[in-house]
Recover the amino acids of this structure.
């Protein structure tokens, strides 16, 4: 029995590495807990870092036992994938590059490899070489798994942020009793236009708005699709009993719209948000803001 | 001082997000070549129309961009190509208001008016390539006439 536990005596290199990982589980975990890969994520307690490291050692042992050293899809990895994803997410939040994450995982290899070499000190040189190669391959596969999960975590983060942007980028502002405004910022693709329209129509109902101002100062390009979306929004608002005013059409965009051949004829437009508000107030007959005695205009 | 760095490119057109990159690239490339704000805006808008056609009607494709010179004039050439269904009747497609889908039908004709040079090549069942050129200042030929 003791011979079976001794290092460097039998089985394939993968078996040897698997046995090594289980035998040295605690030592490896303790060393890894001090490496930046674990240390910087589990800042609250070192025990937590060591526990996370133990899970990774166990996963690697399972992968080695299954002789799947090269396989990033090996079953052993599935149990730690979520944990690795969390670590990856912490990295992308901290602004780490892929190369930095890669270097961190690489940092786990030397402590494990040194332990393996010292365990194999009595084994033949060829055996030592085969086993260290097997462990190196396994650690390379771990690195791929971490990068893979970090990347897909990053992708998921971007998608979440895009969704959030859809919501935060369309605030409807009540400018006056009966007048709401939406400052549109960024690309008005189909998804965003839909959100804009829905939010605006809801606001019109809630605020009993008679006028809705769509300010496009922050929209970089007005092509025929954007114009079509604007016109649809105007038509829908009209059905709700509100008149839309489009403001913030910059000179370069105005010229482009003309060349493009778009006819915004039925849409009321004003150069600036202030002009649009003045127009709406005038239409509402709110006498409060008539021209001042000295002739200053509301701008 | 205009510089051509970052002007040559081949961008994929396969999603709405790619259209954002296309517009951004064209805007930056035009600015580098010394386009004024109005000419930049016109070219970006034309590119937006053509790239969307590549995506929506052509089923995806790509945009190639390159600097062109004629005499002392500097311009930007953009080619939008796809392996889609092609266009059977070019004249009809270019007509303002004609759309085979739910668009405004102003993209092709509008893009032609927004650029200095425009060419449309299409073979049914093979694909479509629209190539446009705009010059950083007035088109060179006009200039030579002065
Ligand atoms: N790349 C293309 N591949 C196939 N058909 C195209 C392509 N570009 C334009 N078309 C055809 O030309 C028509 C007019 O295009 P356009 O003026 O941009 O209007 P819209 O895109 O609004 O329909 C389209 O409806 C389509 O039938
Ligand atoms: Mg179109």
């Amino acid at each position: 029995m003791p011979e079976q536990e001794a290092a460097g005596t039998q089985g394939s290199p993968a078996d040897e590495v698997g046995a090594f990982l289980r035998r040295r589980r605690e030592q490896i975990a303790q060393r890894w807990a001090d490496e930046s890969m674990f240390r910087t994520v589990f800042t609250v307690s070192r025990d937590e870092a060591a526990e996370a490291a133990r899970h990774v050692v166990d996963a690697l042992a399972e992968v080695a036992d299954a002789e799947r050293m090269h396989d990033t899809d090996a079953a052993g990895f599935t149990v730690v994938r979520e944990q690795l994803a969390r670590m990856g997410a912490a990295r992308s939040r901290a602004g780490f590059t892929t190369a930095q994450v890669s270097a961190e995982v690489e940092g786990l290899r030397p402590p494990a490899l040194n332990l393996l070499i010292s365990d194999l000190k009595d084994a033949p040189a060829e055996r030592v070489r085969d086993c260290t190669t097997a462990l190196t391959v396994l650690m390379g596969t771990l690195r791929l798994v971490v990068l893979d999960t970090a990347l897909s975590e990053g992708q998921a983060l971007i998608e979440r942020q895009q969704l959030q942007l859809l919501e935060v980028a369309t605030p409807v502002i009540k400018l006056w009793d009966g007048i709401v405004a939406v400052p549109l910022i960024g690309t008005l693709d189909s998804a965003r236009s839909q959100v804009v329209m829905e939010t605006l129509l809801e606001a019109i109902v809630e605020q009993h708005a008679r006028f809705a101002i769509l300010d496009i100062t922050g929209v970089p390009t007005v092509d025929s699709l954007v114009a079509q979306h604007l016109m649809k929004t105007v038509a829908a608002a009209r059905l709700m009993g509100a008149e839309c005013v489009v403001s913030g059409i910059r000179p370069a965009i105005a010229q482009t719209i003309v060349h493009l051949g778009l006819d915004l004829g039925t849409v009321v437009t004003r150069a600036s948000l202030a002009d649009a508000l003045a127009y709406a107030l005038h239409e509402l007959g709110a006498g409060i803001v008539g021209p001042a005695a000295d002739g200053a205009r509301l701008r | 001082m205009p510089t051509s760095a970052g002007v040559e490119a081949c961008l994929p057109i396969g999603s709405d997000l790619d259209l954002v990159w296309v517009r951004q690239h064209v805007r930056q490339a035009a600015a580098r070549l010394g386009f004024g704000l109005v000419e930049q805006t016109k070219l970006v808008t034309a590119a937006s129309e053509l790239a969307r056609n590549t995506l929506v009607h052509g089923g995806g494709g790509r945009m190639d961009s390159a600097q062109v010179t004629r005499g002392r004039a500097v311009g930007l050439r953009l080619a939008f190509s796809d392996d889609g269904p092609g266009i059977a009747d070019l004249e009809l497609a270019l007509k303002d208001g004609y759309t085979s889908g739910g668009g405004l039908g102003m993209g092709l004709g509008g893009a032609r008016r927004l650029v200095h040079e425009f060419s449309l090549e299409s073979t049914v069942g093979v694909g479509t390539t629209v190539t446009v050129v705009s010059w950083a200042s007035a088109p060179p030929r006009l200039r030579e006439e002065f």
Observations:
- Strands of chain A lie at 173-176, 179-185, 211-218, 243-247, 268-270.
- Chain A has a mean pLDDT of 85.
- Chain A has two domains: 2-163, 173-284.
